Amino acid sequence: MDNKIGICHWSLPMEGPLGCRLAAIIGLDGIQLDIGHSSRGFMLSRDFVQDAYLALGAKYGISFPSITIRELDEVAMTDPEGTESRELMNEALIKTIDAAEAMNIPIVMVPSFVESEITNEEEFQEAVSYLQYGCDYAQGKRITIATENTLSVAEIKRLIKEVDRDNIKLYFDSQNHFLHKDYNIAEILEELIDYVCQVHLKDGKDKDLSGALLGEGDTGFYETMEVLKKHNYSGWLVFENYYDRKPLSLENDNPVELIKKDLQTVKEV
């Protein structure tokens, strides 16, 4: 495939703006960023941090296709309005959208896992409210809010319908639904392709998160890629394998070589 290919900054074997240089050396086109943890003041919300990424991105030809809030795994966006946790995640969302606008990043990804997983109707409605809050704040800024979750096809369609905003989309992942729900990834992608704005690529064996090179796990990677090709998906493909962590790191103690192998695999699909 000839899509632009990026990597999550937490999948690179180094942190910080100089990761742009490494991504360029590998042959990647971009890096998905994270706003940072509240305990450190949402680091990427600071203009000097943004400026460092933008300067090195320009120097090495690296773009930033999306930005996310990884702390949502630790603090629930699905807690009711007025709670300390919800207020903190509201702040995180606003700061992330502001950073996206300042850095010309088109997509803010909102993950719904662990503490922010949607498991019942009450949490579903809180997720709708949270996504509406983000969409409304992002309106007019040329920014899409992208939900990433493991809801069923019907539930995802309902979520997007109830959010009812023209800047809500789905961030699709090539492992998550199989890992958490045993769903067939290619089949659900076929049903959801019209909602997808960007795609994470990762694989795994025996329920290991991000633990196998693309196509060497049990998630049906090649079938998923065929669905993307069938529908002429032209958006970004973003690696989220954990190249410097076990079990994947056991295959090669140089994570750069593992990333290059995944890059070659995708280019050959």
TrEMBL record:
The keyword Isomerase applies. It comes from Halanaerobium hydrogeniformans. It holds the Pfam family AP_endonuc_2. It comes from the Bacteria. Gene3D superfamilies: Divalent-metal-dependent TIM barrel enzymes. The keyword Cell division does not apply. This is Xylose isomerase domain-containing protein TIM barrel. InterPro entries: IolE/XylAMocC-like, Xyl_isomerase-like_sf, Xyl_isomerase-like_TIM-brl. Keywords: Isomerase. GO terms for molecular function: isomerase activity. Residues 21-267 form the Xylose isomerase-like TIM barrel domain.
